[in-house]
Design goal:
single chain, 254 residues, alpha/beta, 60s Ribosomal Protein L30, Chain: A, Alpha/beta knot, 2 domains, 6-stranded parallel beta sheet, 4-stranded mixed beta sheet, 9 helices
Length: 254
């Protein structure tokens, strides 16, 4: 039985052609209204969104571009926004019920302290593309699903289940009890991600920008892997590193 969900606010905005189009495809019932610029670029894409909105009976509001500029706080909006239900986070109890419920291989992404919304959005986009369905994030020291995150994910967030937990270590322990192995990406690990065999069920852990995986969380990792670096720069942006990691896991299963 599905458990309760947690929402920070009643609604949020998502901006841009792709995020709005993906929301229309994935969950039109969660859209309150579509707001479109009266004039501007991307007219063909906007017409397609307009047609989809009318098909679902959604309210359409036409405004001057300056209104969208203010809503997006002068960020990119491409002439369209959707006011939607805020993200329905799942809980630790939901995770314990749902993870591993189906037979076969499964990978879960665990993010330990991502604070930049663009990095979170990019990671969610890579995760969805790599076939990840579940993502675990902490309530504290981590950015939540914001309009910037939705936009940076290009709408991928709409296809993911995100579990927001007060105790990240507790979540990892619960997943271990269900047969998952925990692997952390750490720049100091001697073993590279290309030289390791991976179990069918695993939790891929990424740390925050700059600080990496916290020691308490690292202590729960069954093993650590690194990305080999051959240049003079010692590390990669977390969203880039995460994409490399997740697609290596996908490659092993193709």
């Amino acid at each position: 039985m599905a458990g309760p969900v947690e929402r920070e606010e009643k609604s949020l905005f998502c901006f841009g052609v792709n995020p709005v189009a993906e929301k229309l495809r994935s969950a039109p019932s969660e859209i309150f209204e579509i707001i479109m610029a009266k004039k501007g670029q991307h007219r063909a894409a906007l017409r397609a969104i307009e047609e989809q909105a009318r098909r679902h009976g959604l309210p359409l509001r036409y405004v001057d571009a300056e209104i969208l500029d203010r809503l997006a706080q002068n960020g990119k909006h491409q002439g369209v926004a959707a006011r939607v239900l805020s993200y329905p986070y799942r809980s630790l109890s939901n995770l314990e019920q749902e993870a591993g419920a189906e037979p076969g291989a499964d990978s879960i992404l665990c993010l330990d302290g991502i604070t930049d919304p663009r990095n979170l959005g990019a990671l969610l986009r890579s995760a969805e593309g790599a076939g990840i369905r579940r993502v675990v994030v902490p309530k504290d020291r981590s950015v939540g699903v914001t309009p910037t995150v939705v936009s940076a994910s290009a709408g991928a967030v709409h296809y993911l289940t995100i579990y927001r937990v007060a105790n990240l270590r507790g979540a990892l322990l619960a997943l271990k009890k269900k047969g998952y192995w925990v692997v952390g990406l750490d720049s100091g690990a001697r073993e590279t991600l290309y030289n390791r065999d991976y179990p069918e069920r695993l939790v891929a852990v990424l740390g925050g920008e700059g600080s990496g995986i916290r020691p308490l969380i690292k202590s729960e990792c069954d093993f650590l892997v690194s990305i080999p670096m051959r240049g003079k720069i010692a590390s990669l942006n977390v969203s880039v590193a995460g994409g490399i990691f997740l697609y290596e896991l996908l490659r092993r299963r193709c």
